Amino acid sequence: MLISVCLSIALALPSPGALGGSGPTPWAAEAGDHNEALLANITALGRPGNSIPGEVVAFGENSFLVASAGGGDGERGVIGAATFHRGRVLVFGHSSFFGGWGAGADGEAFLLNSIRWAAGKEQPRVAFLAGGHDLAARLKVHFAETGHYQRCADLPLRGSGTDVVVWVGGAPDEEQIGRLSAFVKGGGGVLLGVCPWGNQQIWDGQGRGKNIRTDLSQNQLIGEMGLVLGDATVGDAAYNLASNRALPHAGQAMDAAVAYITGSEGEQEIAPGSAASQVAGLLRALPASDDRFLPRIQSALEASSFAERVPGPGHKTRKSDVAGHLGMLLATEAWRDTPASRVPAAPGADFFPGAIPSGALRITRSLDVTPEEARQGGWISTGLYAGPGEVIRISATGGAAGWKLRIGAHKDKLWHKDSWSRWPEITLERQLVMDPGGSFEVASPFGGLIYFVPPRNAVGAAGANGASFMVAGAVEAPLFRLGDPASAKNWKQRRAAPAPWAELVCDGMILTIPSGAIRELDDPVALMEYWQRAADCYPELRGEPQPARAERMVEDIQISAGWMHSGYPVMTHGAERADHSAAVDLDTLTTAGNWGYFHEFGHNAQKREWTFSGTGEVTNNLFSLYLGEQMAGIEPWNNPWLAGQKDKPAEYFAKGSKFSDWKRSPGLALMMYATIQRDFGWEPFQTAFKAYLEAPAAESPKTDAQKQDRWMTRMSQALERDLGPYFEYWGVPITEAARGEVAHFEPWMPEEYGKP
């Protein structure tokens, strides 16, 4: 019942009986002929410039992909087309396809083919909607145009001779979408390009990113034609063409997915993982008005034991588990728009993020956010927790314009992973839009720690205002704030608070860890003094003040990449053991440090100006070495992580010091930096970093060559030594001009390398 109830509430689907043809369909039977015309004399297509297009999904009987990228479960469409009644439409995953392909002659030739195909004639008349001036200038030698228009309502679609509309951007309303649809039905052609994932970055009035299923005008038009723009990104440089291989079709994948879910007999041409991935891309973008595919998959899922397939103790859900994968996806999408009073607790939420003990009190608490906290930005911890599926009511004194409420710290989305140890998406963030009674209600099916997020215009603003909130229906969570005498005095009581997640806070760092890991923590003051000192080390090495916003670290049982990753927050494994956290093991932290923690916060601290190609996993480790010394007394040259790297330079030098090899080995590259530190200490690094900070922004190096030059000259100036020979010995290219800047200094080489 979970899927049925949630989907019918949020998507307003017809009953599962109204399926309108549930059997396999002959998908895109004429695609070959159309692609032959579209790809005539086209040998290769690739990404336009540096843009990152979005996904194009073909799912209708008369729709098909023209180009895709990637392969296997990760293959994504980037150009799709469809016939619709008497007309035709071609869809690109980014408007930059119209702005100059930048991939040789084939890109422009393909646009010519596309316009002719959409029109069904060699010399069509073209109208441009919401842009396209550059394209029109390039195409004027080939086609006549009927004008440029900013509004769909002004397009001369009837009796004007317009054959094709090129839609570059904008957001026509429902009536104007109807005009374009009628134009295509009557035999017209439409080419459109938009970046769907870019539109998701635009906040709606409820504090959510725009929903491409409901808010993207282009999908409202092309959805009825069997195409949608999906939320995936397609960053590949080269594309697969339909003239060379069969490309995915989500309608065909839907047939396979339903067969896998229902256990239908017969071998499927599409593997379970590919079928689920393709259908997932479709379902995230398919307009809610769809009356065929959504009811069909809903019907199949209702017959499956969905709740038993979600992640739980000792059980992962694989992407290839079609019922589990698509069931979680549809439930997640449904809950996104479900009124708070009707949001259920998700199956598996008691496993992660965790259960609230029976009998735990739901409390009402007032919270004052200071102007200083608003200026700092980031998530403002409340020490309160929302239970799964439980309504939280917020009221504000003096208004809450621009403020958001967040539930949950585990923000990583995991849909791209091959298997899931927890639900792939478990947090939410909403704009505080008060009802006429002055309150706001929200509920999360997973629950989580509650945060307030200040308005964007308050961050860093001298005139930022604070806010006062009342939160009702929450559970108390363990919370400690360094420097707050009451927090220290009441710690033994507060550490027993019933919520499953706790936070330990100081000015520079906030730790989010399982409550079980701090139940026996007797001295949070010493622990957070350690973390405050650790947080201070990063700006200390860079030669700048402590950032206003504290860093965050959140433990999880599965994250989006690696064992840990940088960002806000830094995400790390560790929650697999609810009664232990390395982040609170002060004895180990003070004697051995933690390379992983220091490394990831080092990523947050490293700067582009002094991080060139091959050093993304190197310059951050300067901070790893520095914190190892400052926080655990480990001499940088004797850091255990370097022990396995010290033999690499000799072998590298013997092979001719090839820069390409240097860039592929972060440990080897770090030795070049660590050797300087060994002989001169940290002061020259601090001096060099400070010089970058004090230099005018216009002088900031942009290219790798400029960054390499600047790093050599900055360090040479800090050392008052010519490092040109040292960089040459290591094979790091430096221009003669840069060598000349520091030639007046005495050349330097490490003693073991010999004289320069």
Q: What can you tell me about this protein's structure?
A:
The chain is α/β, with parallel strands linked by helices. The chain has four domains: 31-248, no CATH class; 252-338, no CATH class; 362-555, Jelly Rolls, CATH 2.60.120; 625-753, Neutral Protease, domain 2 (Orthogonal Bundle), CATH 1.10.390. The protein contains 27 helices and 28 strands. α1 packs antiparallel against α10 (293-302), α8 runs parallel beside α10 and α18 packs across α19. It is globular and about 80 Å long. It starts with a helix and ends in a 9-residue tail after the last strand. Residues 1-24 have low confidence and may be disordered.
Within the largest sheet, what's the order of strands?
6-5-7-8-4-3-2-10
Low-pLDDT sequence parts: 1-24
Straight-line N-to-C gap: 76 Å
Q: How many helical elements?
A: 27
Share of helical residues: 25-40%
Biggest β-sheet: count, sense, barrel? 8 strands, mixed
- General shape: globular
In terms of structural class, how would the helical and strand content be classed? alpha/beta
Number of domains: 4
State Rg. Answer: 29 Å
Beta-strand share of residues: 15-25%
Report the strand count.
Answer: 28
Rounded average pLDDT: 90
